[in-house]
Specification:
With 333 residues, this protein is α/β, with parallel strands linked by helices. The chain has seven helices and 19 strands. The structure holds flavin-adenine dinucleotide and FE2/S2 (inorganic) cluster.
């Protein structure tokens, strides 16, 4: 067990040898900055003032050579070899509302959602709940490093974690889950993480925008929205973007929700639609703006998907004067 000190914040915490500095801090209620948890965004960078760490993913894209030379490290990929002193950005909104725990889970069921998105359901050894819109980490034997996947279900107890996962061409974890892991088999699980969860205290209507694999957290948010007493007077628009008709997803899951058609509405936009498609065409962010009649700032906006899509939505929202506090998103690196 190593002691990690953050002198500027007068904080310290314990980090087991097999954990990472970021995750150990979050498990103990400290608000270290982060986003992706998988070495891609660079938000969890810290400066090592004293001590030694080892990187679990030395080639992680979240850190460039210049930063490495300046003794910067990624909190989500660094395991301590000695006690350490670090300089790291901290903020209260990074503090976990539900402390993340490490456990294992058994794959109990799978179902295909589209030609390349499948739902995977795990029953956990040690239950831990999550907030709709958050994500967990899945570790599969034989795959280097854990991967982040957003929850699709809602649960009070947290004994079931469901994920909707897209098969990525040549991707090691997604293909292992699709082709190798069988029902009854076990994976390691860790969570919950992430800040893009449903704000039940918001007085605004809700706009959910999902691109491709971004389906899962938007389904979880919609399910929680439908059941929320606090949001009973509000409306939710769900806008899904894909390329072609075979990518369409989500409407069947929304149709099951109380309020569908009266205060929960589904819209789809295809960027490379077939001639027979009668619905919206073009990019999903443009469709979302059209759906709300341009009044984006009236909405609490949740979105998830590939970085180019999330960046296009953020840019559009800022140009339309939506306060950043109303934007909640995860970039799916
Ligand atoms: C917050 C968040 C939520 C996400 N939610 C979903 C979701 O709900 N559904 C979905 O389909 N996808 C989701 N993703 C994307 C998902 O995490 C994977 O990136 C995707 O499945 C591709 O993984 P792969 O292993 O198949 O591909 P690969 O190309 O093998 O791996 C790509 C990803 O793994 C990371 N990685 C690669 N090597 C290592 C290593 N040694 N150690 C640690 N990390 C490594 C990369 O940084 C990159 O993020 C999410 C991503 C993030 C960041
Ligand atoms: S949180 Fe560590 S690189 Fe994104």
């Amino acid at each position: 067990m190593a002691k990690i000190e953050i002198p500027a914040a007068q904080k310290s915490f314990e980090c087991p040898e097999d954990d990472t500095i970021l995750r150990a801090a979050l498990r103990q209620g400290l608000g270290l900055a982060y986003e992706c948890n998988v070495g891609s965004c660079g938000n969890c960078q810290f400066e090592l003032l004293e001590g030694q760490v080892e990187s679990l993913y030395p080639e992680a894209p979240g850190l460039n050579e210049r930063m490495r030379q300046r003794n910067r490290h990624l909190g989500c990929q660094s395991r301590p070899l000695t006690d350490c002193k670090i300089k790291a950005p901290m903020r209260d909104d990074y503090k976990s509302k539900i402390l993340p725990v490490r456990t294992h889970g058994e794959l109990t069921a799978m179902r295909d959602i589209t030609h390349d998105i499948r739902e995977f359901r795990f029953r956990l050894d040690a239950a831990n709940p999550f907030l709709p819109g958050q994500y967990g980490l899945i570790g599969v034997e034989g795959v280097n490093g854990a991967r982040a996947y957003s929850y699709a279900n809602v649960t009070a107890k947290g004994d079931e974690w469901h994920f909707q996962i897209k098969r990525v061409p040549n991707g090691s974890c997604s293909n292992a889950l699709f082709d190798r892991v069988k029902t009854g088999e076990r994976v390691s699980l860790d969570g919950p993480y992430g800040m893009a969860y449903l704000r039940e205290d918001s007085p605004r209507d809700v706009l959910c925008i999902a691109g491709g694999s971004g389906l899962s957290p938007m389904i979880s948010i919609s399910r929680a929205f439908s059941a929320s007493e606090k949001l009973a007077g509000r409306t939710l628009h769900f806008v899904y973007g894909g390329r072609a008709m075979r990518d369409l997803a989500g409407e069947d899951m929304l149709k099951e929700l109380p309020g569908f058609g009266t205060r929960i509405f589904y819209h789809a936009a295809l960027s490379m639609a077939e001639p027979e498609w009668k619905g919206r065409t073009g990019f999903v962010h443009e469709a979302a703006k059209d759906v709300v009649g341009g009044k984006l700032s009236d909405y609490e906006i949740y979105y998830a998907g590939p970085p180019p899509m999330t960046e296009a939505i953020t840019k559009m929202a800022v140009e339309n004067r939506v306060p950043v506090a109303q934007l909640h998103f995860d970039r799916f690196y």
